[in-house]
Amino acid sequence: MSTRLKRPSFWRQLLFAGALLALQGYLGYSVVSGQFGIESQEQLHVEISELKAKSFALQAQIDSMRHRTSLFTPQTLDPDIVSERARALLSVSQADDRIIMVDVSTGKPIYSSFDESAASQLTGEIPADVDR
Description:
Radius of gyration: 40 Å
Structural class: mainly alpha
Order of helices and strands: HHHH
Distance between the termini: 132 Å
Largest sheet: none
Low-confidence stretches: none
Shape: rod-shaped
Mean pLDDT: 80
């Protein structure tokens, strides 16, 4: 009895080689223009530098807040500063305080607080029915 060896199919080998070439093409494309590829490296470096700058800005803000909270320790607390801040927040002044009105939009002192519309409403009389 004779044995006959079956030769592998030509199409099977061609299909296998084509699949391997397709896989290599996909991997090559991913290396060049994938999410973490060569072309995306520059964009990633720009994003990293932006996030570092944002991190430094936030760290400076954190340091500023830590410094401000350290001023409230009982050893460094100045009663004059506390009373000044409390009066500023409550819009209260003492008799010997000098008050300088500042225009919020420009930040410059207001030299005259005369307002035509408010002046037209003034009568110069105090109502008698006001209880004191």
